[in-house]
Write the structure tokens for this entry.
Amino acid sequence: MTKDYSEKDLLNDRHAEREWMVRTQLIDRDITDEAVIHSLLKVLRHRFVNEDKQEFAYYDTALEIEAEQTISQPYIVALMAQALGLKANDKVLEIGTGSGYSAAVLSRMALSVYTIERHDLLARLAEERFRNQGYKNIEVRVGDGTLGWLEKAPFNAILVTAGGPVIPDSLVNQLALGGRLVIPVGDKGEQHLLRVKKTLENELIEETLGLVRFVPLIGTKGWNEMGKSC
Ligand code: SAH
């Protein structure tokens, strides 16, 4: 799969490539949320991966990043963002900062994003990317995201970008009334993408959005380092 771009497109920080990505990978599928589409059009995904991966940044695929982790496929990021149903005033928690790409996508649709990463290196690289690209409403913390971020709770939306064995109760507890949690739950090979809504009456509604494959969620309410459910 190759595509030719003019000098102008490259100077335009690959806008044409993103337009192509958004059309063929999002709109031609089932992504209809205008805010999600706009955000993926604007976030420079190639600046969230290493130089040797940049030419593939707008392909329909996940890519390797540092610490043996991955930056999710653009379509999956869009699907999760759409499922969160974000509003401009929402406070969002993300578990699994990774490259920082999905946090950047969410930050353009919400008021603020708090994101937790267990690998110090990834957290530092993501912070540097946010700083260089002018993202000012994202706060990064190193730690075990399965416990949430109690000091900043409650959140209108919580996104987990790694696959766990169960829905961590700590995250459900940190959802505001009317809040939405999106999380891949299953075994290490394959997970169901779940959405949990906490209604204004404090009831939980759970839906399945499809099958996905994420790197493991490792922590107190996730898998342990050996790959067993904690
Ligand atoms: N959202 C990322 C995807 C990263 S992959 C992006 O757009 O690039 C998932 C990330 O979750 C990995 O970086 C992994 O280190 C991290 N992770 C796994 N378990 C975690 C936990 N308990 N707390 C915080 N981060 C975790």
Observations:
- The chain has one domain: 7-212.
- The domain at 7-212 is CATH 3.40.50.150 (Rossmann fold).
- Residues 178 and 199 are 5 Å apart (CA to CA).
- Helices lie at 7-11, 15-27, 34-42, 74-84, 101-107, 120-132, 169-173.
